[in-house]
Design goal:
Layout (H helix, E strand, L loop, with lengths): L52 E5 L4 E4 L5 H12 L8 E3 L8 E5 L6 H14 L2 E6 L6 E4 L3 E3 L9 H8 L9 H13 L13 E2 L10 H23 L15 E5 L6 E3 L6 E7 L10 E5 L4 E5 L1 H5 L9 E2 L23 E5 L2 H5 L13 E5 H9 L3 H9 L9 H8 L7 H9 L8 H6 L2 H6 L1 H29 L3 H10 L4 E4 L1 H32 L32 H10 L31 H6 L1 H11 L12 H4 L24 H4 L5 E5 L17 H7 L12 H9 L1 H12 L19 E7 L3 E5 L16 H8 L8 H24 L3 E3 L7 H4 L5 E4 L43 E7 L3 H14 L7 H8 L8 H9 L3 H12 L4 H11 L5 H15 L2 E5 L12 E2 L1 H11 L3 H4 L4 E3 L4 H11 L28 H27 L5 E5 L3 E7 L3 H22 L15 E4 L18 H5 L6 E3 L1 H8 L4 H12 L1 H14 L10 E8 L4 E5 L5 E5 L15 E6 L6 E8 L3
Family: Belongs to the DNA polymerase type-A family.
Subcellular location: Mitochondrion matrix, Mitochondrion nucleoid
GO molecular function: 3'-5' exonuclease activity; DNA binding; DNA-directed DNA polymerase activity; RNA binding; translation initiation factor activity
């Protein structure tokens, strides 16, 4: 039952079918702000009334009795009851009632109460009881129906218990009656308020307690808890560094340089905070060659064994952890059970590169080390757009549309991202980077020769990074004050991708499949080239529609003058044959390929005669050949380019060099770079020009356009465009700020095709039109067989001329992904783990296990999006693309699972939330917000369906354009997308549809007079034309006369008004965590508003980054230390968790989504959250990093799929109800395991003893020996005796202390300590019990 306007005192009416209750506060401008649901003791009892069925009208908010015994008494009683009613902002819907505008409720007397209660018990079991999917192990639980909570615009909100947990202690300003009315009327205009929609099943489980009471204080506290230790370390690190050492010791491993002390060898730097830099000799592989680090206490240098030896000792790209740099552990430390959890921080410029060379980062068990990137800090504080970066790189910073003063302004606040440029910006000095060439182009021998120079160069980079950190860190903390920002960035710096032996198999299979299809493609292309070459005979190419414009010229074979020997003359006379010797000095080969020889060979009438004379003829013919032979004389020029020369090492006859990237290939497949449109049947030869090359007759025959061909792009291209849309829009709007759009050539009205008019007339018989480029008419098509056009072929937008061409195009689609990404994939740095670094259950398996550390720049763009060239741009699996199963090759080792989720419509929800809070502080108050929260694709009420229907395009295309508009793209960009998706659409139609779409969504821009002008001019909204006339009439500028323009009349007008308000603020900041915009793009007083679209785009996308940081911090709070963050894609997050925690991790992701969205709503002043967005649609629990757990990832290189080809079963997709059932109803299980594992000393001892005493014994290495324990000599020290009788002290490893004890007479294996003086070795393993 829906109660629209009032709640009724429980003693007022006795209901048969339902009970009307209230559990919310009531707000009204004309009444007290708070009315209690409990009755006061002195409150008068309202007498009961008896009547039949009563109609309750929702529209009129009145109660009308159908028939009563005493009508006046009933009305009087109702008046008394309604006098205590107050407007109620949250409606209550009981599922036992029919959804209609008028519902019937029976009101009975007190005498019939008992009988009503009896009948109600029976009815309750059918109508008013529901099954709540609660946290009782997934079992159905029957409870008395609790009404669904609906807000003022019929959006279903959180259940009462979750609402009270998240928002019960907060203080919020409630929406006024005016705002509620305004929101309802706005929705009615678009027929949205009363649209029927199904209700969602409620969720009932206990949430973890919030820290601080409210969701806002909770995130502040957990963010502070996670970031504070590292922030303290960073503040200590920015102190003055010691002087750089003048001399460096040439010894492997770490060496410590302290003031006043001699250099000493150490296993690793015992520092909590370091500035770090690694150098790699590129000629020998990816492993580190040397490194330097510094702290306020000392300098440190690391030198690889390969530099000392002069060779790497590594076969191919098979890298092991022993080749890496230890930063937290000694040589004997294992990768499991290490217990290294102490917070440590490493700072570097592009520190992701340095992190991939650190040993401990490849362990399955995480440590407490985090990484801070000064390049990311620079991008946050002083980042620029991609187009500004291009200007800086090209040194073309003078623009026609900007004054030099404005241009210099942003240059003073930013720079390129290299260390030298960043150091120059913040410190004012330049760095000498010439020594870097030794590592890029030199060898290990070259580095050895310049050892002191390269060490000093590496140390200078560390010192420069430290100088930048001192300047940047205070700036960053002041501009990004919320602790969640730093905590989220620290968590992003720990990305980890596990792999196994299937990785090498994937590389082999993908490359072999690529080579097979590439060979077949080359063979088919070579055959088509041979067939086309035959058109040279009788000039047939002149009548071919595709090959007529190729270069058909041939080379001439010039022979020397033939000398007739005396022996030849005698032979000719004896045979009675006269031989005519030409007087010409040369013999030529004509263009048509037919040889004309002046020496007649009719004398060789049969094969026998030819063989008999072969010896003499060969000797004479060789003498006639020129000294330098031309390449394939007699063949056309375009064909010769496809054939290798005989001098090539891998020479094979025929057009072996042909590929799909060559210019002639599209012509061979009857597909080119444009269109020929004839306008006459014959060539106009009035100008006495040479004969035409255009085959007009054949062109006219082929010119008619075939009816009924669908040229509209399909889902594949729409998804591909959407995946890179945020980057494309950012590049487009940043470029628009600097230059005017070039006006295209005027297209004649008679042309209705899909070519790009370029006003090119060929021989007065036809027009040439360019093939349309996806980025607009200003761009040229480089290769018609490139990825974008291959998508057109796959969706039948374009087609080949015959079956052979279709097969070649199909092969081209298969090859495109691996050809474009092979180099990046094969160069991934994979480090394989030794058995000692693996859990015990993985050591006996046949597979190898390792990891890839993705080089993630945590803030790589102006919008603070993370950037990584391979994994963050990896596309989903496609059945036609070789190697596209890349993501699925990231596979969890046995005993682990990969758990993750895709944030549903992240940017749309953020944008709608901003608009709703600005418009009325009600979820779904704007049409855009309502469609985002409550719209359904099934009934066409979601925003993509509504836009598509109104404009007349497909939903897939509308979805891409909607996202582009939210990102800040304008109408011209929408026109271009429409043309890209539907090439046959004319410019006029594209402009019309784009204009209609923007009027429907964004609305029209209107101006309002400033207050000083309202006294004598009409106070209303003025259009652009009207405002320009008025300001011209009064002789003032537009800004002086009018306020900032507002968008009106569109479904998204409120949202864009708020976004522009934020963007035009003197200090724009994100709406959630309050992060500031880059200094280079902040609005300047009196300057042009050229960066407004960029700043609008920044608000939305940087808000999405805030949301990601909230999720990362929440997940780290909910999970224990065994869970590792894998990676975050555009709107996805993935975690590697132990098998026994996978369902708890899935539930934790659902809870994280709830908490993060509740925080965003609360920070914007909204005191509730819609149930539709509270939880993920599904959380993927899998053993591979595929996007969907049930996708088998079948590709040409993996034809059998993951299940049959790799033995990887499908994963699970869990919504909130399934996750609760699987996880046992709460997150308590995770917390208990975490506490027990961390706090139980006995459990730890059991595992350590089992590892030390019961592990499989390993053979001793060269430097290890077995010794006998004589006696204890102090804390964790023992005196031992070796095989030679020598006695010395050994130490107990840290992880064995207070856990394992040894006694006299025990035998142990030990390993020498390089820096040991008194203590000579460390115990490796205990050999006796």
């Amino acid at each position: 039952m829906i109660l629209n306007c009032a709640y009724i005192n429980r003693s007022c009416l006795a209901l048969k079918n339902a009970r009307i209750t209230s559990n919310r506060h009531v707000w009204n401008e004309s009444s007290p702000s708070k009315i209690s649901n409990k009755k006061k003791k002195n409150e008068k009892t309202i007498r009961k009334i008896t009547c039949d069925t009563v109609n309750i009208s929702h529209q009129e908010n009145s109660i009308i009795p159908n028939s009563v015994t005493s009508q006046s008494a009933v009305l009087k009683s109702l008046d008394m009851a309604l006098s205590e009613c107050r407007p109620y902002s949250v409606k209550t819907l009981s599922r036992g009632f029919t959804k209609s505008n008028t519902e019937k409720v029976k009101i009975t007397s007190q005498k019939n109460k008992n009988s009503i209660d009896d009948s109600a018990k029976k009815q309750k079991s059918n109508d008013n009881l529901k099954v709540l999917k609660s946290g009782n192990g997934g079992k159905a639980k029957k409870e008395e129906s609790v009404g669904l909570r609906l807000n003022e615009v019929n959006i279903q909100m959180l259940p009462k218990n979750i609402f009270q947990h998240l928002f019960g202690k907060g203080t919020y300003e409630k929406p006024s009656e005016t705002q509620i009315t305004m929101a309802q009327e706005e929705l009615k205009k678009h027929n949205l308020l009363y649209a029927e929609k199904p209700t969602l099943d409620e969720v009932n489980f206990k949430l973890p307690s919030l820290k601080g009471g409210t969701v806002e204080s909770h995130f502040h506290e957990i963010g502070e808890e996670q970031s504070r230790p590292y922030r303290i370390l960073l503040n200590n690190l920015i102190k003055q560094l010691p002087e750089i050492p003048r001399e460096w010791l040439y010894q492997p491993g770490w060496t410590k340089y302290s003031d006043g002390q001699s250099p000493q060898s150490i296993p690793f730097p015992d520092e909590d905070a370091l500035v770090f830099d690694v150098e790699v000799c590129c000629s020998v592989g990816e492993m580190p060659t040397l490194a330097t680090a510094a702290s306020p206490n000392a300098w440190y240098a690391w030198i690889s064994d390969s530099l000392i030896r002069g060779s790497t000792g590594t076969m191919g790209r098979q890298y092991l952890t022993k080749d890496l740099i230890p930063l937290e552990s000694g040589h004997l430390q294992r990768g499991v059970g290490h217990g290294i959890a102490k917070p440590r921080v490493v700072v570097g410029h592009n520190v992701a590169f340095d992190r991939t060379r650190i040993k401990e980062q490849y362990w399955l068990e995480s440590t407490g080390m985090r990484f801070v990137d000064t390049m990311s800090l620079h991008v946050c504080v002083s980042g620029i757009t991609s187009f500004q970066r291009a200007l800086l790189k090209s040194n073309k910073c003078k623009s026609e549309d900007m004054s030099s003063e404005e241009e210099e302004d942003w240059r003073n606040y930013s720079s390129l991202n290299s260390l030298s440029e960043v150091h120059k910006l913040y410190c004012g000095t330049t760095l000498d980077k010439t020594t870097r060439d030794v590592f890029v182009n030199g060898t290990l021998e070259d580095i050895n020769k310049q050892f002191d120079t390269v060490m000093h160069y590496c140390a200078q980079d560390v010192h420069a990074t430290h100088n930048v950190l001192k300047q940047l860190m205070p700036l960053f903390l002041s501009r990004f004050p919320h602790p969640v920002t730093l905590a989220g960035m620290l968590e992003l710096s720990t990305a980890y991708l596990p792999v196994n032996s299937n990785w090498n198999r994937y590389l082999t299979d993908a490359e072999q499949t690529f080579q097979d299809f590439d060979s077949e493609s080359r063979f088919l292309l070579a055959r088509r080239a041979d067939e086309a070459c035959q058109l040279l005979h009788e000039n047939q190419y002149r009548e071919d529609l595709w090959m007529w414009d190729q270069d058909w010229s041939t080379q001439e074979l010039k022979l020397k003058k033939k000398v007739v020997t005396r022996r030849k003359k005698q032979t000719d006379e004896k045979d009675g044959e006269a031989t005519k010797v030409s007087n010409d000095k040369e013999m030529k080969v004509t263009k048509d390929g037919q040889e004309h020889q002046n020496i007649e060979n009719e004398s060789y009438s049969n094969e026998k005669e030819i063989l008999d004379s072969s010896d003499e003829s060969e000797e004479s013919d060789v003498e006639l050949l020129p000294a330098k032979m031309p390449h394939l004389p007699g063949y056309p020029a375009w064909y010769r380019k496809l054939c290798p020369r005989p001098s090539a090492s891998d020479w094979m006859p025929g057009p072996q060099l042909i590929s799909t990237s060559m210019q002639v290939t599209p012509k061979l497949l009857c597909h080119g770079w444009g269109f020929l449109v004839p306008y006459r049947n014959t060539v106009d030869s009035s100008d006495n020009s040479t004969s035409s090359q255009v085959p007009v007759k054949q062109l006219v025959e082929r010119c008619p356009i075939i009816e009924g061909v669908n040229l509209t792009a399909g889902t594949n291209e729409s998804e591909l465009t959407l995946s890179n849309l945020h980057k494309t829009v950012e590049e487009n709007i940043s470029r628009r700020a600097y230059g005017k759009r070039r006006m295209p050539d005027t297209v004649p009205t008679w042309y209705k095709g899909n070519g790009v008019w370029c006003n090119v007339d060929l021989e007065n018989c036809c027009w040439f039109l360019k093939l349309p480029h996806k980025n607009g008419s200003d761009h040229k098509v480089g290769n018609p067989l490139a990825k974008d056009f291959l998508n057109k072929f796959s969706e039948n937008v374009l087609a080949g001329a015959d079956a052979g061409a279709e097969k070649l195009l199909a092969i081209g689609r298969m090859l495109s992904y691996w050809r474009n990404n092979r180099e990046r994939i094969e160069q991934q740095l994979v480090v394989w783990l030794d058995d000692r670094d693996l859990p015990r259950h993985l050591r006996s398996t046949d597979s190898d296990y390792g990891a890839i550390i993705p080089q993630v720049v945590v803030c790589g763009t102006l919008t603070r999006r993370a950037v990584e060239p391979t994994w963050m741009t990896a596309s989903n699996t496609h059945k036609e693309r070789i190697g596209s199963e890349l993501r699925a090759m990231i596979q969890a080792p046995p005993g682990y699972s990969i758990v993750g989720a895709d944030v549903d419509s992240q940017e749309l929800w953020i944008s709608s939330l901003i608009g709703d809070s600005y418009f009325a502080r009600i979820h779904g108050a704007t049409p855009f917000g309502w469609m985002t929260l409550s719209g359904r694709k099934a009934d066409g009420t979601d925003m993509h369906s509504v836009t598509a229907k109104a404009v007349g395009i497909s939903r897939d295309h509308a979805k891409v354009i909607n996202y582009a508009r939210i990102y800040g793209a304008g109408q011209q960009f929408a026109e271009r997308l429409l043309k890209q998706f539907n090439p046959v659409m004319s410019d006029v139609d594209a402009r019309s549809k784009a204009s209609k779409m923007f009027a429907l969504t964004k609305g029209r821009r209107k101006y309002r007079l400033r207050e000083s002008y309202r006294a004598f001019l009409e106070d209303r909204l003025y259009t652009m034309t009207e405002s320009l006339k008025l300001r011209s009439l009064h002789g003032v500028s537009l800004e002086e006369m009018f306020e900032h323009p507002q968008w009106v009349g569109g479904t998204e007008s409120a949202m864009f008004n708020r976004l522009e308000e934020i963007a035009n603020n003197p200090e724009p900041s994100t709406p959630f965590l309050g992060g500031r915009l880059s200094r280079a793009l902040e609005p300047k007083v009196g300057s042009a508003d050229q960066y407004l679209p960029t700043r609008v785009n920044w608000v939305v996308q940087s808000g999405a980054v805030d949301f990601l940081h909230l999720m990362l911090v929440s997940m780290r709070w909910l999970l224990d230390t065994r869970a590792k963050f894998c990676i975050s894609f555009h709107d996805e997050v993935r975690y590697l968790v132990p098998e026994d925690q996978k369902y708890q991790a899935a539930l934790a992701l659902h809870v994280t989504n709830l908490l993060a969205r509740a925080f965003c709503a609360s920070i914007l002043g909204l005191s509730d959250l819609p149930l539709s967005v509270a939880f993920f649609a599904s959380v993927e629990v899998d053993t591979a990093l595929r996007k969907e757990a049930h996708n088998d990832c079948t590709t040409p290189s993996n034809p059998h799929g993951l299940s049959k080809g790799y033995g990887i079963p499908p994963g699970e997709s869990l919504d909130i109800y399934k996750a609760l059932e699987k996880a046992g109803g709460s997150l308590k299980a995770t917390n208990r395991r975490s506490k027990k594992r961390i706090m139980s000393r006995f459990t730890k001892r059991k595992h350590v003893i089992k590892e030390v005493l019961l592990d499989d014994l390993q053979l001793l290495t060269e430097n290890q020996e077995v010794v006998r324990v004589l006696k204890g000599r102090g804390n964790n020290l023992h005196e031992v005796e070796g095989a030679t009788g020598s006695r010395f002290l050994v130490s107990m490893p840290t992880k064995f202390r207070r856990t394992v004890w040894i006694k006299r007479g025990d035998f142990v294996s030990v390993e020498p300590i390089a820096e040991g003086n008194k203590v000579k070795a460390e115990i490796v393993q205990i050999l006796t019990k």
